Every structure is written in structure tokens, then in C-alpha cells.
Amino acid sequence: MTLHDQAQLQLQTKMQNMHDELMLVRESIQEIAKALTRLAVLEEKHNITSDKCDKLSEKIDDLAKVVQTNETNQAIQLAKIDGAKSAMKLLWAVFGGAVVYGGGQLLMLIMHLKDPIP
């Protein structure tokens, strides 16, 4: 084998090695492209999920306001009911007192009428 043939063989070997390395680089780039595509899909899903979470958070805040308003209204209604109960108790007490007083006056009148007139 001549020196020229050896040089040509070495050159072919180096070229084959470069070709193999370039193929590995190409495969790596393809894998990176696939990974970037998957990453983009995941990012989109994340954005959609994040938007949904934000909307749910707003709805929860709105519901919290409604609950707070209802609790305030309930407290006001309970205070009104307690006031009405107190007023009814007072009215029954006054009515009962009036009945007792009226009954006493009626008895006094009846007893007075039974007395002979002088």
C-alpha cells in the first residue's frame, strides 16, 4: 500500500467518523426539537390551567362576598326578630295587666252594686 493510499484511507476514515458524528448531532437536534415541542404543549396547558384557576379564584371571591352579605343580612333579621319578640312580650304583659286591672275594676263594681243603697 502506497503512502497515497494510506492517506486516502485515513481521509476516508476521518470523513466516515465526521459523518457518524454529524448523524449523532442530527439525531440530538431532532430530539431537542421534539422536547421543545412537548415543552410548548405543556406551557400551553399550563397557561390554560392557570387561566381556569384565576377564574375559579374570582368565583370563590364573589361567593365569599355573597356569603358575607347573607351573614350580615341574617344578623340583621335575627336582631329584628328578637326586637319583635321583645315587643310581643311587652304587649302581652300590658294586655295581661289591663285584663287583670279591668277584671279587678269589674269585681269592685259588682261588689259595690251588691251593697244596699243608703
Structure description:
By secondary structure, the chain is mostly helical. Helix content is 95%, strand content 0%. It is built from 1 helix and no strands. The longest helix has 112 residues, at 3-114. It is rod-shaped and about 165 Å long.
Tertiary shape:
rod-shaped
Mean pLDDT: 92
Which sequence of SSEs, written as H and E, runs from N to C?
H
Q: Biggest sheet: strands, sense, closure?
A: none
Q: Would you tell me the structural class of the helices and strands? A: mainly alpha
Return Rg in Å.
Answer: 50 Å
Record field, number of beta strands: 0
Which consecutive residue ranges, at least 5 long each, have pLDDT under 50? Answer: none
Helical segment tally?
1
DSSP strand (E) fraction? under 5%
The helicity comes to over 70%
Our measurement of the CA-to-CA distance between the termini, rounded to an integer number of angstroms, reads: 173 Å
